[in-house]
Design a protein that fits this description.
The complex is a heterodimer of chains A (about 300) and B (about 260).
Chain A lengths: L8 E10 L2 E11 L4 E5 L6 H8 L7 E6 L2 E2 L4 H5 L2 E4 L11 H11 L4 H4 L2 H8 L15 H12 L6 E5 L7 H16 L3 E6 L2 H7 L2 E6 L2 E6 L1 H8 L3 E6 H10 L6 E5 L2 E6 L3 H9 L5 E4 L2 H9 L6
Parallel strand pairs in A: 3-8, 3-9, 6-7, 7-8
Antiparallel strand pairs in A: 1-2, 1-4, 4-5, 9-10, 11-13, 11-14, 12-13
Chain B lengths: L18 H14 L1 H27 L1 E2 L2 E2 H32 L2 H7 L4 H29 L11 H22 L6 H15 L11 H7 L3 H14 L6 H27 L2
Antiparallel strand pairs in B: 1-2
Helix pairs in contact in B: 1-5, 2-3, 2-5, 3-5, 3-6, 3-9, 5-6, 5-10, 6-9, 6-10, 9-10
Classes of the chains: A alpha/beta (about 300), B mainly alpha (about 260).
The complex binds adenosine-5'-triphosphate (ATP) and magnesium ion.
Chain lengths: ~300, ~260
């Protein structure tokens, strides 16, 4: 198919303003077909707003946007026929059963039950909800609701699935379950664009990540490349008492350090001298390789955002 | 830099048959609660008929050539249609938009805001049809109907339901909470109900008030429905139907524009 050659998402200089404030401020994104692309960023960074623009649910104030070859928002409805959406907050229909949620949602795509054939049963099995098919939504656990929302997003066999915090609020098992399903979708050749606050999720699932802060993409690469490019290889981590005493003890030393709440992070490609300095001050420490969370903290600052 | 004119900026709605799944979704939910809902549609007007028709009617006797209970039965068909449609387009639509986020889910699918607004309007009008039918059945059983042409009132009620739904949807589009709806009831619906000839003939009112009432749809609906229900022949039908039709069209345009701005902002 010729249109498979189109990138999944091509966004140039997207801007969205609310009340004069640019909450998305010149975002460029290029998502390839078949990859899992993650948007990472603190609360209020503009992730959801960016996804809403991709789906044509809010028009950008300026910029150019093409998704699956469709210009957005001009052809947003045609686009959404080929996309699956998992919103940040579940909006399942509480008046319907699990199965009815799928059939009703299918009707919004112009799909009747007889067109769907075995698809509903397959999706129920995919979401491990086949035994709860006639349960009402309010009777489902948080994990089940999320799985149902994911199954619902697949009703139209979408080429692209957009997921806004797919595993937020889930327990570790439920999260693992969602991850496994997302890997399966990617293996089927679908493109995934997701947002997350979990570094582990981003690291494990995403081929590439864009880190957003205050409406701007501050870095975009594979998780490994981000860690390599933006950080020293190792982190010496001081906690609690050690963290409190280090600023005095470490004064004047040429060590790259960061304070994050109750923790002090010391970055180094060669950690031995740092460890020696910390030990000389009589402080306990933890040595570990730098990871995505360190990159995130470095690039997005440390103050709490609302 | 391009600034495409998306649906949020458009002035005119683009109605399409895609409203049908929205309408159908509401129908499926309603089917669940059909029995209590239909009992409600029968129960309330029966109470009104008994209280006003027999209670008040005993004091009033005739209105012109008509028994008071016959007069008021034909009025209540219209006012119930108005309230049924309005409630659905205010409270229920607001719940689906805000509390339940049902509309947000629909917008993730290939439906437009216009499809949702039209689906909700036609659904609210459908419910007013159910309520009018219930009252006509009650009135028929009580022997208050003038004949089979009473059935011709139903398409008029559907149009009226659409007009009341679309105007109520404007209010819903502007609301930030359920409380806001009280203004609409107090400032618009109650005066319209009292002044449009539902409970007493409009000739009883000072001419200026009658003229004002004719600016609103309910008086025109009553003018057509009352003769149809009581066995008469309505006059100036085209004019009387043009007013609710105009309300429906203009309100739909305004409401859908407001909803597009609210939901796609
Ligand atoms: N409809 C709106 N009207 C006004 N401001 C808005 C609107 N939608 C979003 N914002 C603001 O835009 C900013 C970005 O919001 P957005 O929801 O995109 O952030 P986010 O990255 O998804 O955050 P979170 O991680 O908390 O979900 C926030 O400051 C938010 O308050
Ligand atoms: Mg968000």
């Amino acid at each position: 198919m010729a249109r498979d050659a189109d990138p999944a998402v091509a966004a140039e200089a997207l801007v969205k303003r609310y009340g004069g404030v640019a909450v998305v401020d010149g975002v460029d994104l290029a998502v390839r077909r078949g990859e899992c692309f993650g948007l990472l960023g603190p609360n209020g960074a503009g992730k959801t707003t960016t996804l809403r623009m991709l789906l044509g649910l809010t028009p950008p104030d300026s910029g150019r946007l093409t998704v699956l070859g469709e210009p957005v928002p001009q052809r947003a409805r045609e686009l959404r026929a080929r996309v699956g959406v998992v919103p940040q907050l579940d909006n399942l229909d509480p008046d319907f059963t699990v199965r009815e949620n799928l059939t009703t949602y299918a009707s919004y795509f112009g799909l009747r039950e007889r067109d769907l054939g075995r698809r509903i049963d397959e999706l129920l099995a995919f979401a491990a909800l086949d035994k709860r098919a006639s349960a009402r939504v309010p009777a489902l656990s948080g994990g089940m609701k999320r799985r149902l929302t994911l199954a619902r997003a697949l009703i139209n066999d979408p080429e692209l699935v957009v997921l806004d915090e797919p595993s937020t609020g889930l327990d570790p098992q439920a999260r693992q379950h969602i991850w496994q399903r997302l890997r399966q979708l990617r293996a089927d050749g679908r493109t995934l664009v997701l947002t997350t606050h979990y570094m582990e999720e981003a690291e494990r699932l995403c081929d590439r990540l864009a880190i957003m802060d205050r409406g701007v993409v501050v870095a975009c690469d594979s998780p490994e490349a981000l860690v390599e490019r933006h950080l020293e290889r190792y982190v010496v981590e001081l906690r609690g008492d050690a963290a409190r005493r280090w600023p005095a003890a470490g004064q004047g030393r040429d060590i790259h350090s960061r304070e994050v709440g109750e923790t002090v992070l010391l970055y180094a490609d060669e950690p031995e001298p740092v460890m020696a300095a910390v030990a000389a001050a009589g402080l306990k420490y933890l040595l570990r390789p730098a990871n995505l969370e360190d990159v995130f903290l470095r690039l997005t600052g440390h103050d709490i955002r609302e | 830099m391009n600034t495409p004119r998306g649906p949020a900026q458009r002035w005119l709605p683009r109605p399409s048959l895609r409203f049908i799944p929205v309408w159908r979704r509401n129908l499926l939910v309603w089917r669940r609660l059909m029995i209590p809902s239909i009992l409600g549609h029968f129960g309330e007007p029966v109470l009104y008929l008994l209280a006003f028709g027999y209670g008040l009617g005993a004091l009033i006797g005739q209105v012109g050539e008509m028994e008071y209970i016959v007069f008021i039965a034909s009025g209540i068909v219209c006012s119930s249609a108005m309230f049924t449609s309005t409630f659905e387009a205010l409270y229920s639509a607001y719940t689906r938009m805000e509390t339940q986020q049902t509309w947000a889910a629909m917008l993730g699918a290939p439906l437009d805001v216009d499809d949702i607004v039209l689906g909700e309007a036609i659904w609210a009008a459908s419910k007013s049809l159910v309520s009018a039918t219930a009252i006509l059945i009650v009135a028929g059983v009580l022997g208050l109907l003038g004949g089979w042409q009473a059935l011709l009132a139903l398409p008029v009620i559907l149009l009226a339901g659409l007009a009341f739904a679309c105007t109520a949807l404007i209010v819903t589009a502007l609301s930030r909470s359920y409380d806001f709806f009280m203004y609409y009831f107090t400032l618009v619906l109650t005066p319209m109900l009292l002044l449009s000839g539902v409970f007493f003939p409009m000739e009883q009112l000072p001419a200026i008030i009658g003229t004002l009432a004719y600016l609103l749809p309910l008086a025109h609906v009553v003018e057509v429905v009352r003769p149809l229900v009581t066995g008469g022949v309505p006059e100036a039908v085209a004019l009387h139907l043009a007013v609710p039709a105009a309300y429906a069209v203009v309100s739909f345009i305004i409401a859908s524009r407001l909803f597009r701005r609210r939901l796609l902002g």
